[in-house]
Amino acid sequence: MLQKNSRPGYKRVIKNTAKFLIVAEAIAFAATYAGWYRLNTSRETRHYVKENFPSILESYYQWRQGDPEPRRADLEAGAGSETMNIFVKSAIYLTGFGALSWVLLEVTTPSKEKLEEIKRQQGVALSESKSQKALFLKTLKEASEGKDPLKKKSD
After folding, report:
1. Longest Cα pair distance anywhere in the chain, in angstroms?
2. pLDDT digits (tens, 9 = 90+) for 71-115
3. What is the pLDDT of residue 126?
4. Within a domain: residue 129?
5. Does residue 95 fall inside a structural domain?
6. What's the number of CA atoms in the CB half-sphere (13 Å) around residue 23?
7. φ, ψ for residue 20 (rounded to 5)?
8. Mean pLDDT across the stretch 56-77?
9. Which of 38, 46, 67, 138 falls 20 to 30 Å from 121 in CA-CA distance?
10. Highest mean pLDDT pick, 22-31, 86-95, 113-122
11. What is the span of the domain harbouring residue 131?
């Protein structure tokens, strides 16, 4: 009979550590590529990096020395001067959608006459449904007490 020998503990630790490092490196590479892509394609991102991390933007420009177009375009455009602050944009959207919802609420609010009519119709419907329930319960009680089974009435 073959006996199964367990692996030494250090081999298992090395294998799990290698898996973790490979996955962590892949995630770090994807995040780095995403950041580079945004720097390469978005003037707004370059402006944000210029304001918060100027050394990173300077490294990016030095790496792109063969193509000075991004730096020149950023300088000519003012590096994002045409973009609005995110808080101002959010306040504008909040105000606009709030006003729109208020207008819709006012437009769809029924008049007092319409509300009274709806209440009257509901009262009639409620009384009709109560009478139908009472009739059903009465018929059911009669059927349970009698020997004749329930039969569908023909019109």
Report:
1. 101
2. 666 666 664 444 556 667 777 888 888 888 888 888 888 788 887
3. 63
4. yes
5. no
6. 6
7. -60, -45
8. 69
9. 138
10. 22-31
11. 111-143
Q: Is residue 137 part of a domain?
A: yes
Place of tokens 């808080």: 87
Residues 6+ apart with CB under 8 A from 60: 39, 46, 49
How many structural domains compose the chain?
1
* Tokens coding 6: 């367990």
Return the DSSP state at 7. Answer: P
> Quick check: 127 and 134 in contact, CB under 8 A?
no
Q: Which amino acid is at 91?
A: A
Q: What is the pTM of this model?
A: 0.38
Tell me if 60 is assigned to some domain.
no
Rounded Cα gap, residues 149 and 127, in angstroms:
29
Q: How far is CA 151 from the centre of its chain?
A: 55
Of 13-22, 40-49, 72-81, the one with minimum mean pLDDT is: 72-81
Alpha carbons 148 and 144: distance in angstroms, whole number: 9
Whether the Cβ atoms of residue 76 and residue 86 lie closer than 8 Å to each other: no
Mean pLDDT on 20-28:
93
